[in-house]
Amino acid sequence: MEIVGGLFTAAASAGSAVASGVSSLGGFLAGSGVLTGLQGVTGLLSIAAKNRASQEQKQANFDKAAEAEIDAQAEGVAGQARAVQLRKGLIDAMAERDVAAASGGLDLGFGSPVQAREDASNDAERALSLDALETSGRQQRLRTRSASYIRAGRAARAGGLLESLATGLGTLTDIGARGVVPGARTSVRTT
């Protein structure tokens, strides 16, 4: 029994010594500014991460804006290609009508062949005009989308900078609340 009692006494005093050591270590770390330094480092890392994330978001939006602008230009080129095809179709249709009319013995200088040419030309002009309006509308929508992406990218960057500033100020406030400010001088009064 005495052996068991001795073991409990030894364990209790060992536990007390460990608790005292941990308490002293915690006091040393808090008093020495190590925790404050770690807090400052983590604050800086947090600021850097937020800046990086906002920069990446800005770049992603700028990339989308560039894609939308390229799509707008491609739409313009596609519209020009459709216009060329419509004009070519008009020329081919007129040529076929002229050949058919000439082979039927009609005079191409007046009457029905002239009216048919005018009607075909007017129809082609209307189709060209409508296609040009649609192309312009699609290009404008794409350019508006591009501008929206640019605004979103700038807003993401500005938001990230503000968030970083708030994090930095919060970290400084927390460090100041600890009473340990790097570079601050403390004076000790002796009476």
Describe the structure.
The chain has 191 residues and is an all-alpha fold. The chain has a domain of 128 residues. The chain contains three helices and no strands. α2 packs antiparallel against α3. The longest helix is centred in the middle third of the chain and has 70 residues. The protein is rod-shaped, with a radius of gyration of 41 Å. The chain starts with a helix and ends in a 13-residue tail after the last helix. About 11% of the residues have low confidence.
Detail the topology: elements first, then pairings:
Elements: H1 2-32, H2 34-103, H3 112-178
Helix pairs in contact: 2-3
Query: Poorly predicted ranges (pLDDT <50, ≥5 residues)?
Result: 4-8, 14-29
Task: Give me the secondary-structure category.
Answer: mainly alpha
- The ordered H/E elements are HHH
Instruction: Give a count of the beta strands, DSSP E runs of length 2 or more.
Output: 0
Distance between the termini: 57 Å
Give the overall average pLDDT.
77
What proportion of the residues is helical, as a percent range?
over 70%
The major β-sheet equals: none
Strand fraction band?
Answer: under 5%
Please give the radius of gyration in angstroms.
Answer: 41 Å
Given the structure, what is the number of helices?
3
Give a summary of the structure in a few sentences.
Helix content is 88%, strand content 0%. By secondary structure, it is mainly alpha-helical.
Characteristics:
single chain, 191 residues, mainly alpha, 3 helices, 0% strand, rod-shaped
